[in-house]
Structures
1.
Amino acid sequence: MNDDMAIIVQKYGGSSVGTLERIKHVAAKVIQTKKQGHDVIVVVSAMQGETDRLITLANNLTHEPDPREYDVLVSTGEQVSMSLLAMALNAKNCPARSYTGPQIGIITDHIHTKARILDVKTDLLKKDLAEGFVIVVAGFQGINPRGDITTLGRGGSDTTAVAIAAALKAEECQIYTDVDGVYTTDPRMIPEAKLLSHISFEEMLEMASLGAKVLQMRSVELASKHNLPVRVLSTFSNNALGTLVTFEDRIEQKRLVSGIAFSREEAIISINSVPNRAGVEGTILGLISEANIEIDMIAQNATDKTTTDFTFTQHRKDYMKSLNIMQKIATELGAAAVTSNAKVAKLSLVGIGMRSETGVASKMFQVLGDIGVNINMITTSEIKISVIIDEAQLEQSVKAVHDAFSLHKLMMDMQPLALEI
Amino acid sequence: MNDDMAIIVQKYGGSSVGTLERIKHVAAKVIQTKKQGHDVIVVVSAMQGETDRLITLANNLTHEPDPREYDVLVSTGEQVSMSLLAMALNAKNCPARSYTGPQIGIITDHIHTKARILDVKTDLLKKDLAEGFVIVVAGFQGINPRGDITTLGRGGSDTTAVAIAAALKAEECQIYTDVDGVYTTDPRMIPEAKLLSHISFEEMLEMASLGAKVLQMRSVELASKHNLPVRVLSTFSNNALGTLVTFEDRIEQKRLVSGIAFSREEAIISINSVPNRAGVEGTILGLISEANIEIDMIAQNATDKTTTDFTFTQHRKDYMKSLNIMQKIATELGAAAVTSNAKVAKLSLVGIGMRSETGVASKMFQVLGDIGVNINMITTSEIKISVIIDEAQLEQSVKAVHDAFSLHKLMMDMQPLALEI
């Protein structure tokens, strides 16, 4: 590896390598990066549809596929796409070699189907880069200390790319996908949504966990830990710089709010005026957990000293199951009532700037009140405010909040925005 | 590995694992063998059609796929089938683990797409057998000393199975396929053809090279070298013992002739009365070889001291090309004529017993003469006599020779047959 050459790690997702034509297109992009004077390592996912095809084979064979063998099976998807990309590169006179995760030495723990990367060996990568090769690596997979093939779970290719970039101290890890980057909110709902040129790791984590499924959360955590800039950009547009995910202090121009995330198909259940004694929350959540229901937000209001209101949200699919459990326990605990709503949505305002500004929450509530939206529940974290509202009012709410915080006017050069209360 | 337990290596071809139902059927056969008290290692090919699908991907991407990457690609076919078989075994409570060629340590040379096995590591195999696992290994693939994935070429899974069986000194290597074993001749042509219970390595090599495509030749050579009995048998019939390929001295009851192999679509070309000087054969064959035409049989008759006849056979597809070359060179060399026939077939009688018996050839020629078949060319080896005849007369010739040597009466317990001249 030439010490003067910066290493760029590029990751291409399943839709980016979904056809032979697209693989040729990716090869052209890789060659372009190489010609700019970079050492390039490419991480690929399986061709779109291939992982599902393999999983269907396993499920049609047996109800509970052996997890070790499941990993052996599905890891072939990335092996196919990596070899095809390396062929496409060699065919264009760009020397390239492909390697599986086990070949590179992407060491993981033993948890099949959702392994975590423990270490990335760099000897082979450094040697091949020094010889001028582009290296193509299968995403999503590794090898455990026993020598078995493991997979990282869906979206794991992002983590493979970040882990390799971190191990080699790459200049940047570029995640190529079928969207242009991270938007202030979903542009399919709000056409005025703006592409963010930068976003902090913390904001990205809040956005990702809320359903802006651009980057796998684990990869953002890993990049943040290793202080590695990650750029999200589109495989299919040539001029875009996408969104750079980086440390807050690297973003020179601050802004108050970065975006609005939302999720539909939520349900909310409250148990009202339950006698407030130690352990009551544990009793309630314990029953929900035993029924294998995942809950999302939790809030509790001690209405007076002897009773309390306990509220939680969850995905709508398990709503009736939870409601039955709650009605039973309400009687046992002597609660006044169980109230619920199965047709709610979550809206979250995310922004690292709100840490030092106290007016963000009140402005958001005021905006929603002005358009007649009733807030069912509120939770807050340091850089996020989430509210539960009627799902029917989601779209108008996102639009109103997006307007109020001038996200539609957010410039790509990120002028700081004043909070206008 | 329990020292008292004999190791059986079983190989299942692409049609044997062609569907999920067939994979379950193979799992049942493996479990049956395991229950008989054997340690079992299973070698699998890719599911029928899968290797072709992968090759088509590569060829549609680029005209000359990089050989290293081609091997990375096509080796995924066996990885899919091995994991599915191991899943099917585990689902039936038979502990099994699958491994790729590289994982086992099937070391090959560097020749991508047609590598040769140099060594088979046995540590992992012995360890897993000792722990009671059935081991499923991907056929057709290995790893070169640089750490790259290699493939052995079509039919290479047979060689993988034999190499593993030899390395572990297995009791027997069983090649499961879609035919019952090796027949005295092709039963699709001659319904009276008999299944051979035994055949010698040498006879098998002659039969295989003549188009009885039951076993890859390289695997027969390897088995012969390591003195390893190989049994060819059907995946789809339960009671058959198939054909055991073994050393001549292990076959107690001798027979004169074991079978008749034949191949259609041959062509024959003779250059007649060519002045017989040193190097003339090299001149003729050199031109054919430069034109990338593969020739099969060669015969030369020195008709008198100054001129000679030179004859060869080849596949029909390149016939016109060869004929043009021969007509040109005949003029240059001052030969009398070029004679040819594009509609001939080859019929070969194979049998280890003919080594010590001289009457076989004359009996064969007499039988063919009796039914009015003209012989165009004859070549012989120690255990084989091949003749070139008109293709239109092939079927009646095979039947007559089959009858004359009483191959239709060959008993499965192999009573010795007398030569009746």
2.
Amino acid sequence: MLVGELGEEALLDRLRRLFSSTAAAISVGIGDDAAVTGPAAGMQVWTTDLLLEGVHFRKDWQAPEQLGHKCLAVNLSDMAAMGAVPRYALLTIACAGDTPVDLITGICEGIASLAAKTGTAVVGGDTTGSPGPLALSVSLAGELEAGEAPVLRSGAHPGDRILVTGRLGGAAGGLRLSQQGSGAGFPQLLTALNTPVARLAEGHAARLAGAAAMTDISDGLATDLRHICAASGTGARIRADAIPVSESLPEAAERHGWELQELVIYGGEDYELLIAAPPDKAGRIAGAIEAAGTLVTDIGQMTAAATGIVMLDPRGAEQPLAQRGFDHFRR
Amino acid sequence: MLVGELGEEALLDRLRRLFSSTAAAISVGIGDDAAVTGPAAGMQVWTTDLLLEGVHFRKDWQAPEQLGHKCLAVNLSDMAAMGAVPRYALLTIACAGDTPVDLITGICEGIASLAAKTGTAVVGGDTTGSPGPLALSVSLAGELEAGEAPVLRSGAHPGDRILVTGRLGGAAGGLRLSQQGSGAGFPQLLTALNTPVARLAEGHAARLAGAAAMTDISDGLATDLRHICAASGTGARIRADAIPVSESLPEAAERHGWELQELVIYGGEDYELLIAAPPDKAGRIAGAIEAAGTLVTDIGQMTAAATGIVMLDPRGAEQPLAQRGFDHFRR
């Protein structure tokens, strides 16, 4: 059987089982935004993400510094989703010998700039020549305060409010513009795609204020909400008209004939946080996120698993959220 | 300027400078076998290595389990070279959708098996589809006991004895056999190439016994000795006839017309340890390595920098060791 026939989720299940014996003493292993190790006296949080030319980016879609920013930011976002503080990063670069030095140093300048802003030390890495596409991989270790536990995907309960930071769909809009080669006029969407903001302060504040479950929206709202529901054994009901839409996205969607809801619900790479908040703590969590200067919106609530994952349209009709999302191996 | 024109060493120098500000508080940053962070109460050691199809391996040269073994082993070897104990690993796999599932699970079985043997927990990772070659990247974090310091490349002094574990040239011989498609008859050389042993117990014992400087021989004896000399500000004088040669290598070299010394001095990937041992501790260090069941050989001594890096041939003639070694970006 080929990887593309098995699919990404099933492959991950196999690898999870394979490595479970090596990680028997690990607090949180493969399957959350990040892994968690160590005793209560200062747990460590671990994540890694690879950006590959032709899959995750194209060289001519952004400045090298933006690409560097993004390859660290996507890892920082995993850290944010655990409510952890980033500390140490390792960087791997694979590129062809005919790659301009300025491209590589530009990428590294983008990484170094964001690293400095977030208190992340780039402590080492690996470089190698490659006959294939440019590959940028960051591994990141972070910390939790002594005695503190990370916020997992599995902690949600029916009745929890569902909060989301920022606005959605912007990165998906930016991706379509880039693919069409028509970015002019909507710089905000390109910014959303190329220089996503990891919600570190917001994730940390949400954890301290009592968030029950949390993930970052990297695969799209529908898919990432499904991740929380699957891990928590719940359903969810969200209101379509409550979902905060990226500001210039409606205008861009109208001009280009895109279906707006498709981008907002199924578009990935916004790197906002999706939070399940116990009803008695939802106000405090929202307040803590707003105090960090970031919009936060209540878009619905967690339900019993039997409800499934559904969206209420503006007329009050329920529609199930489709199980879609990007599979890296099926093309 | 292109990366291939600048060269790997010069590129690394630029990246080191770029990231130095982010890692100002780091004990050991980019440029040793691994990075070191944290207070004396239990330092952490960090390393990452990428294996790329067509650059570091070919799929038909070894079993999937061997490939998995190797991609963890090369990282464990960096840990060994610091005298540290491996703890947590992150694994990144990039492959095409038409990759057989058995290849990926076989690789992961090889990783899991070696991880279990070495007390390493594979806590997470990333998988992605790729239009390019199969890429396997491991990031590894290890630990030092509270109050203990790692063994760096920079600690050698003139007069230190130069010790090497195991035997050299086997992996380079195995590589030539694989390239020629003529592996039969010399299984030991293929084993040296495909399932290298990270000298974890030996590195740990050497550190406790007082090793002054240490590195693993991944780039070849000449290049890795040069790394220690450059970091320590010394020269070195080694004896050609003292260097332990991989057991079946002379026979293979004779049969295939290879220059034996070329493989032993400049061949890479043996993953043995190269140690600078203060004269009064050399015996104790050698004894500790032998107690781990591993051959250890005194091949010469560190000298003043003015001597350069030289080898005495069996007739007592001195020849400088050429500055060679693999540059990943120049082809």
